[in-house]
Amino acid sequence: MSEKTETKAESPVGIVTPKDFHSDARLELDCGKSLRDLNIRYETYGTLNPDASNAILVEHALTGDAHLAGRHDENDRKPGWWDEMVGPGRPFDTEKYFIICSNVLGGCSGTTGPGSIDPDTGEPYRMNFPVITIQDMVRAQKLLIDHLGIRKLLSVVGGSMGGMLATQWAISYPEMVSSVIAIATAIHIPAQAIAFNWVGREAIMADPTWNGGNYREQPQKGLAIARMLGHITYLSEESMRHKFGRKLQSSEDYSFDFSTDFRVESYLNHQGNCFVERFDANSYLYITRAIDYFDVSDQADGDNFKVFDNVHCPFLVVSFSSDWLFPEYHGRDMARTLIENGNDVTFCNIRSDYGHDAFLLEAETLSKLMIGFLNNIYMED
Amino acid sequence: MSEKTETKAESPVGIVTPKDFHSDARLELDCGKSLRDLNIRYETYGTLNPDASNAILVEHALTGDAHLAGRHDENDRKPGWWDEMVGPGRPFDTEKYFIICSNVLGGCSGTTGPGSIDPDTGEPYRMNFPVITIQDMVRAQKLLIDHLGIRKLLSVVGGSMGGMLATQWAISYPEMVSSVIAIATAIHIPAQAIAFNWVGREAIMADPTWNGGNYREQPQKGLAIARMLGHITYLSEESMRHKFGRKLQSSEDYSFDFSTDFRVESYLNHQGNCFVERFDANSYLYITRAIDYFDVSDQADGDNFKVFDNVHCPFLVVSFSSDWLFPEYHGRDMARTLIENGNDVTFCNIRSDYGHDAFLLEAETLSKLMIGFLNNIYMED
User: Fold this and answer.
1) Are B191 and A295 an interchain contact pair (Cβ–Cβ within 8 Å)?
2) pLDDT digit string (tens) for A104-141?
3) Does the N terminus or the C terminus of chain A have fewer Cβ atoms within 10 A?
4) Which residues from chain A sit within 8 angstroms of residue B203, using beta carbons?
5) Strand order in the sheet with B315-320
6) Whole-angstrom Cα distance, residue A107 to residue A125?
7) What's the complex ipTM?
8) d(CA A107, CA A74)
């Protein structure tokens, strides 16, 4: 997802302090290996009610983190990545719900990932970190939810990779999930998205600073290229045309060299440079691989239907008309599969020019849908 | 455009010998600099008639060359890049027409480009090569056409960048062009395509082997990344889904590492590796920059119509339904502009799943359109 633009608007959430949960459990992974001494970084908003029945788990996308809303510090330039959705009267209403957001396994924002210390060696895992899956990420989050004393989540909500995690929660722990909101996502990613992930990883690994994962400083060039490429896929042809067109950086003529002539070039450069300040190259490799591997049909001998056999909760499935990374038909396919499985499904394809990033930018339309959906679940539960 | 798959089918063109035209003229360029001692590599097919009225100039795309059809040698594994279109009964009918294809200025397949020797220094130009434009490429080709004694081209034909060159020919030398066939192209490229070109160039320039353009061996990793990225944009989501889906390289499970698990990954790798064997990294930089800079409205104070003021020849404009690099609306806009200008325009949006590469893959449909169009021009001329 894109960098948020700076905003000084007061977040109703105020100052938030991230928390850490350390688990002594050994986590068995899909690859056959295991991890121990896990740390899970998370944030919460609102108050858990006495019967722990008002918890919503929000899942972040590829480059997101646990910092969903509010600010860590008064001087923070930006609030959390989905701040617009959190607070009184908003979908994640802090007066009604207890909202949890945790950094995923393999991440670089507090939760155990390739940059963490391997307890067996005392050195960072780096490329010795096991290749993880979306299912593994959900297994790790389950440890946190158990720790918080929550037996059933009112909803698991996410966009893009976050939608995969939300869907996987219902598959892995159907008895723990009362509803799912899956936005701009799919039950498996298409070949084109696998291809873009491949090129992004190749760019990182081609950077000599990457050094087989044993870098001291981030492989800035490779990571920036991966990010710029990803960024193009988060926008749409329409939104780029409207936002940048063929506008030049300066009002003068072309430079007749290879510097940033066009505004879109300068914008991408900026996105790439910001990203290397906040993200870890090895995490990028591991998380994109987990996305590639996600395919619910793998969990039921190639049968999409069978995997939802035990899943009976309502789903809100949202796609966006101009999202070409996770095109509309994915949302529609997912909705159809769930309907044929007997689930209560609300499917909405929102007309938007914002491409994949619409899940962050169409806050108003999404809010309306989500408020109604969550309220129904809350009332019924 | 994509690598062609190997084919042993006999090309009706047979063995072709590339030719070189050396020009003593000084070529004044849009950037304000000039070039001298130009070499232009070209191939011809068929026979020029006595009044030199049956010549068709075919323009190649970004990574193409002068080798349009036939084989250079009996042992060549593959014929030229658009072999299906050349020969008796085909659009470029060698019994009727004299077909010319030349490598563009800035290229790496025989025509003067950044890898050529700068006559002023005796050293290769490398990054001292001036930044060229599509107009400059056309100016260089004009020297060749004059040399061949051709005063008027029956048609100028091209796909993708080749379509830009064909259109520019009609704008630059309206009295020399009897018709234009512009396929999967645009009168300027959109922001998204500028963005992809930018990331491709950044990947090349980030490769330390590139070394400011002063490499001894190609910056293989960077150039392969640029190619893989380009390649994704030449296909469509649909064609990748049908061709690769989520198929694995081996029939077994995921590798749980970062090697080529999926067929689409292996395919891209192959495309990248083949490309670095045959293309030059600096040429890639210069040619993509020329594509970025192409905007016919720049040639008439921002007015698309005015630029076609002196252009009165018929156009065949073709787009493809799944081409997202040069979406259909570009072809439609170009056709509309020309129609309002009073030109005789045939516009066709061909339904195809092949994406941008359809211009090479939809040979049968294109052939029918082109045979009819060219025949009309030939009869009238």
Assistant:
1) no
2) 999 999 999 999 999 999 999 999 999 999 999 999 99
3) C
4) 203, 206, 225
5) B19-23, B38-45, B98-102, B55-59, B155-159, B180-183, B315-320, B345-350
6) 12
7) 0.95
8) 25
